[in-house]
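Hey all, sorry for the wall of text incoming. These are the two entities for the joint prediction.
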Amino acid sequence: MAATTVLPRPKAYDDTFFRPISIWLTTTDHKLIGIMYMVTGILSFVLAGIFALVIRLQLSQPNLSVVDAETYNQLISAHGVTMIFFFVTIFLTGIANYMVPIMIGARDMAFPRVNLLGFWLVPVSILLYYSGFLTGGALNAGWTGYAPLTEKAYQSHSLGVDFWALSLIVWAISGIMASTNFLTTIVALRAPGMKLTRLPLFVWAQISTSILLLVVGAPLAAAMILVEFDRQLGTQFFTTQGRPVLYQHLFWFFGHPEVYIMILPGFGMISEVVPVFARKPIFGYMTMVAALFGIVFLSMTVWAHHMFTVGMNTYVEGFFMLMTMLIAVPTGIKFFNWIATTWWGSVEFTVPMKFAWGFLATFLIGGITGVYLASVPVDTQLHQSYYVVAHLHYVLFGGSVFTIFAGLYYWFPKITGHMLSRKLGEWNFWTLFVGFNGTFLIMHTLGLEGMPRRIATYANPSWATTNLIITVSSFLIAFSVLLFLINVVRSWNGGEIAGNDPWQGNTLEWATTSPPPPYNFERVPPVRSFMPLRDLRESGEAVVAEPEPAKV
Amino acid sequence: MAARARALIGLAAAAFLLSSCDGLGGISPIFPEPVSPNGQGIYNTYIGISIPAIIIFIGVEVALLWVILRYRRSKQPAGYVPPQIHGHTGLEVAWTLAPLVVVLAIAGYSFVELQKDFQPITGEEMLVVVRGHQFGWDYDYGNGVVIHQEGTLAGDVTPFVVPVDTLVKLQFQGTDVIHSWWVPAISGKTDAVPGYDNFSWLKIDRVGSWRGECAELCGVGHGTMQIIVRTMSKSDYQQWEQKQLAALKASPSPSPSPAKASPSASPG
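and here's what came out:
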């Protein structure tokens, strides 16, 4: 291939970035909507991260009162809700919104106006949740909001729970819209030659995620509607007189697949990043796809593993234990395939690849502790303890957040036309890796020693040192995120020009300009395998350039 | 073969070693030393799972490190073009089946423990009804004696007293929201859920006292709902019980009333 020629940034697209705010409010362009999703996600990440720092300050020593117990309970709930519903899921929807149509060679999503509505429901959902703070206090029962603690009898002082329930109903509707849109787009708008067996694995991951959210979004909304009936219409579904455990079944039928909604797109991004930087095709494309669907199926049969202490029949518990452990099989396939992809490779440890490898090294721990937690007898000890907090952060931070950083460093040049600074990126990675493990690795031991989660403070002096180490490390994470934000702002405004294909990518998004013009391609390149761009490069055909894209 | 067997034994020994050094500066890789058979069962299961877990952890992390050390671009000759391998059916089947066998073994092993120690028991020597409320625990011995363990962080809570070497069945009830009774040295946690009774048991093999906490977020006083379980020798326990009964007779008020006092009296 000829030396990479630096193409000028297309003028027409630049205009869209700096036009008045109206363009952002009314756009149906999947790329602009994708950026808004991602920015919303990152802002939520920062906000929920600040909550986490307050939580860590409160727990750094025994018997502190940085905040009172009621505020603490609202903070842990807001931290969980914001991270899960408003950061990870929203950010991943955004990056998929941006990338999926380009990767399949489409001009936009199938239903651009549904896309617009789906996105704008997200700020509505966020504002609804935070309105709770204005009514005397937001949700204070943890992000899971177990009944009957959320019932009116125990929440007389505020409407926080109502706003949380409404917020999640709106959120579920938004998610269902996005999922429908993704599935339709991928089924109907693929470029000529883009057979299902040639879809990039990130697109496959988005298919599986969308199916999951379609199936489990409605039960979440149903659970929230019943909570509202109990609170406002005096029904007795989940009250002390009703069936509180029914709420847990409904919530976790959504809640466990939600974990996979937050990690499968990350798996997809790792499957894009690893082959590009190893200069090898993904190992076992078909088993990678099969593993995704194995996870989709299994993830809907494991919800009651969150409920091993409520007193179920031991055979029912045995079933959920077995299904949970079986998830290790498809996840293991993906792990081994990723490693095999790099075997004998020529691996360039760029920042996205470092995050990908950091993800593998840490997510492994989350996966292994997941097997301990799945074992019913062991879970009765570990459940609702700091071991679980450590485990879930290994899965969601070591998993989702590391993959998000990998994806961002990988695709930021495509989205903005500028590279993220490599030097700051290295600092970002290493401080995050050390800070993250420093925070969450020894947290396992707190749980083993008997520290329950969600306690506002504690008297036991033997937990003090560990908690202090965790708090100090958590500020290293905050520092790292600050570096990341500086990097994004500085690079967006003046980073090194990326060109169309800075990484020598495999997939179609690297065929168009950075950032892509409206409607993405003037002429979609031919697709002859699941690595269409690499085929072009190797066959010596000119990569299709877009000299002068149409005006918006 | 022999080398591999030795490595396995070494790993098992490492797992046990890990288990023996509890409380190293407050950082422990395993639960406190169990004092009840069901806690011991959980403890053993934890160690059993740790053996394959440690092997897999080390194996995968070493593979990841090996890729960093051996296959990074700077270690490859200039102009190296990696072999374009798309997959290998045999390998892919192998790393589907191998984890499957491992998790089936772990699930089976755990299920045996589940059947052994988590079935509803009969033949108990004592039954105590444990009621969780905001924010404390009431232990109803059934003979009129009720211990009120009101939550506090200011000092030790009133201990729940049981005789040593006695099979005690615990019957959990939730009176308002869900609570969860957890003393790590004894066994796992059991939820006290409003609407139905939950069961667990203990048979503590030594005299002493052990701490625990409420493990289900139950409101502002959740962190104060500490638990202390104290065991006494059987003769001491009988004396203690007589004293409690005598105190009951002396006070004219019937037993069930004190439960009322709890919600407002306990500090957040």
